[in-house]
Amino acid sequence: MRDAIVIGSGIAGMTCAIRLAERGVHVCLVSPFPSERSQSVLAAGGINGVLSEHEEGDSVACHIEDTLRGGCGLAGRKAVTGLCESAEDIIRRLEKAGTVFSVDENGRPLRRAFGGQSFRRTYYCGSATGKHIVSALVMELRRYEARGLVERKLWSCFYSALISDGRCCGVILYDETKLDLIPLTADAVVIATGGQNAMFGKTTGSTQCDGYTAGKLFTQGVELKNLEFIQYHPTTIETKQKRMLISEAVRGEGGRLFYLEDGRRVYFLEDKYGPNGNLMTRDIISREIDAAGKTVWLDISFLGEEEIMRRLPEVRDLCLKYIGLDIAKEPVPVAPSVHFFMGGIAVHLNHETNIKNLFAIGECASMYHGANRLGGNSLLSAQYSAIVAAEEIASRAPAGGVPDFAAELGEGRAHLRKLKESSGSRFPVTYIREMLADTMREDLGITRDEASLRSGIKSIDYYLSLADGINYDSSVAMHELYSLKAILQLARATLTSAESRRESRGAHFRADYPCEDDSYAAATIISYDEGRYSTRLDEERKYES
Amino acid sequence: MKVKILRQVSPFSESYWETFDADVPGETSVAALIDHINYNDDITDETGRPTTRIGWECSCLQGVCGSCAMVINEVPSLACETFVRDLVKDGNGTITIRPLRKFPIVHDLVVDRSSIFENLKKTSMYVEEYRPSSKAKKAKQKEELAHRYQTAKCLKCGLCLEVCPNYVNGERFLGALFANDCYLVSSRNPERSAEVGKQYAEHFAAGCSKSLSCMDVCPMKIPTIASMAKMNRKA
Fold first, then answer.
1. Smallest CA–CA separation between A462 and chain B, in Å?
2. CA-to-CA distance for A21 and A15, rounded, in angstroms?
3. Catalytic residue at A92?
């Protein structure tokens, strides 16, 4: 193919743009903000891989098995095998791009232990791995920008995809500098917009990751997958402005979780699961903390100030700055919070959606993590998925002619005009988004049941009924306004998917169906047709080919 | 307390000051304070006159993305890690907020920092092939790595440019973030050192009066002076 549009410029989007440019494909990289503002910079703990130099006994096969086991049987073996086999190449390339990995006395990259893994195989840059990878990729990408192979389009937000006869030929963007919708066509479109944290309010992620793109594509005929599997990270802290992540690296470096009973520390995870109890997978620990029903603390102070500053400096800074607590001296109170979305846009092994020439990569796509993601596997899959998509696009013949999209553009402009002129309801967008976040946190928490999910769906339907008639607020960015409806539709699809899975598996725990049920051992696929949300299980494993 | 904000509707309109009343606990960050003012059905200024929501940028809200860079009580800062307790005593007093003035205003506190990225592109700040020098002694390598780790954390937030007495609009002198990127490129690929050194001389060394105020406001505490020393040695 000759050209591609990549929506989103975090680690997945940048990796895809670099790999496409290397193969001579012209890329338009679209994002409202530069890559330094992406959610990728928040990734803390590390990236998994079994390199030629590895811990004794470890192997790529073992990384594959750990990932599949962590995913509770829902991740496809073929995809996970490709992911784990590529880890060495990906990490070596990151080193070559100048990523500042933490190294030992001899300059060899260090590894730390992470949850759900049989060996130490998580490579890291202090506790700011995502930021360091972003910095290296920004520079790598700049080389192709300078050569004119990659063109960055800032201040632009996705509005919709141009789809005709099941084929995607481009996108319509909202350009904040022109205050207008702009059509952009290309042979292929790659979506790399991250998860949908903001649907749950201010969680551990970026406020910019709102799920709009996935929601809008859903209403345009793109199928979504496994939306019910939402990772609650077990160790986060509450601050005045958001929930902040305490990296799993703390437990990887020996951190212990406990609660107090009669003034005595109870290391409840070690008591139940043995000495490695603190490194169980995130779904299990989150449920255990939730079930404890009292304040749970994370202690790493025994490591001492010097070691903490060497291995976890950013975690110490964060706690000092936002809650005035020194992890080198005392334990920190933690609680689970929404962190990562295993589900998202349904893609085939080559990362193409059910719409031809439309691809999805990174967290917004669902492929490698099944019902629960292992820490350290997302930085890996963000890049691997980008490479797979780039190779597919670069090897294909150009797509051919572009149909006339004047009607779509006209409809879009009329839609924005209507939003500006509307005055039907007294609810501004901000309030509905707050109510949505409350509903999602309450009704789609760590533990769900039929009643909570039905009540959630009822609430979302009410918000949807308001969405078409809200007051326009000229001081709110246009994206915030037009995005509301599709975000609500994505929320509705998420609750519907969770309602349809009447079993418990990985991060999806149903109090009314607390056991795993073999008849549900397949991905949930959800599709949309004029207000109808239809779910099915992908029993033929259509999306694993 | 009073919150006085310099506002501007669009790139083409006049700016104006507007003052709000707010009552928030001291541990509130300025980011949360702006959110607090914005989260109201009918926003009014201190006189009760209806007004619009304040435009500002945020993403991570924990000091690692650089979106919310602005000038708070005359100090260029990130709103998400500047706290009310450090700005006013016992909830009394005035917090003054204005956008960065070295960049074009988009809306209220939102500015267009594209010039930062355009300049780094124009001056070819990329590694090409990674070939760090392996000749250095172990202790030296360790020190280099620690500096590279700190420097690569640069947020490209623009606070160092805002505070700099030499940086005007990025046409010639490109400021501390440029000097740090020069160091990163030449340390990752010494073969590009000469070329990068030339850019450094022209766009940094020739214009820097070494006030080092850039280091005081850097949210990542990047020791730019060390990058300068290393670049000067290379030159």
1. 20
2. 10
3. no
Q: Identify which of A207, A240, A242 has the shortest CB distance to residue B28.
A: A240
Task: Name the residue ranges covered by the structural domains of chain A.
Answer: 232-337, 406-519
CA B17 to chain A, closest CA, distance in angstroms equals 16
CATH of the domain at B210: 1.10.1060.10
Quote the ipTM score. 0.96
d(CA A252, CA A292): 22
Per-residue pLDDT for chain B (235 aa), expressed as one digit of tens each?
999 999 999 898 999 999 999 999 999 999 999 999 998 878 899 999 999 999 999 999 999 999 999 999 999 999 999 999 999 988 789 999 999 999 999 999 999 999 999 999 999 999 987 777 666 777 788 899 999 999 999 999 999 999 999 999 999 999 999 999 999 999 988 889 999 999 999 999 999 999 999 999 999 999 999 999 999 886 5
Summarize pLDDT for A148-184 with one digit per residue, the tens. 999 999 999 999 999 999 999 999 999 998 999 999 9
A201 CB near a chain B CB, below 8 Å?
A: no
Distance of CA B198 to the CA centre of its chain: 25
Sign of the CA dihedral running A134, A136, A139, A141: negative
B92 and B144 in a common domain: no
Q: Write the DSSP assignment of A54-75 as a string of letters.
A: --TT--HHHHHHHHHHHTTT-S
Label residue A87 left, alpha or beta by phi (over 0 means left) and psi (-120 to 50 means alpha).
Answer: alpha
> Would an 8 Å CB–CB cutoff place A465 in contact with chain B?
no
CB contacts of A318 in chain B (<8 Å) are 62
Q: What confidence category does residue A424 fall into, taking pLDDT thresholds of 50, 70 and 90?
A: low
Catalytic residue among A282, A287, A448, A510: A282
The CA distance from A307 to the nearest CA of chain B, in Å, is 15
Q: Which among A42, A139, A477 has the least Cβ separation from residue B127? A: A139
Mind giving me the DSSP string for chain B? -EEEEEEESSTTSPEEEEEEE----TT-BHHHHHHHHHSSSS-B-TTS-B-PPPP---SSSSSSS-TTEEEETTEEEEGGG-BGGGTSBTTBSEEEEE--SSS-EEETTEE--HHHHHHHHHTT---SS------S-HHHHHHHHHHHHHHTT----SHHHHH-SS-SSSSS--HHHHHHHHHHHHHH-GGGHHHHHHHHIIIIITT-----HHHHH-TT---HHHHHHHHHHH-
Kind and range of the H or E run holding A334? strand A332-341
Quickly name the fold that domain A406-519 has: Methane Monooxygenase Hydroxylase; Chain G, domain 1 (1.20.58)
- Architecture of the structural domain at A232-337: Alpha-Beta Complex (3.90)
Cross-chain residue pair A132–B152, CB shorter than 8 Å: yes
Tell which A residues from 64 to 103 touch B, by Cβ distance under 8 Å. 95-98, 100, 103
- The domain tally of chain B equals 2
Local structure of residue A187 (DSSP, 8 states): S
Q: What is the pLDDT of residues A224-274, one digit of tens each?
A: 999 999 999 999 999 988 999 999 999 999 999 999 999 999 999 999 999
Angle between helices A450-467 and A478-500 (to 10 degrees): 150
Considering only the beta carbons, identify the residue of A98, A135, A207 that sits closest to B59. A207
The CA R_g of chain A, rounded to the nearest whole Å, is 22
User: B101 Cβ partners below 8 Å, 6+ apart?
Assistant: B71, B162
Give yes or no: residues B68 and B167 share one domain.
no
User: Given an 8 Å threshold on Cβ–Cβ distance, is A207 in contact with B41?
Assistant: no
Looking at the fold, whether B120 and B228 belong to one and the same domain comes out as: yes
Contact B90, B53 (CB under 8 A): no
Single out the residue in B111, B146, B164 at which a domain terminates.
B111
Which structure tokens are listed for A438? 């409350």
Question: In chain B, what residues touch A139 (CB-CB under 8 Å)?
Answer: 125-127, 181, 184-185
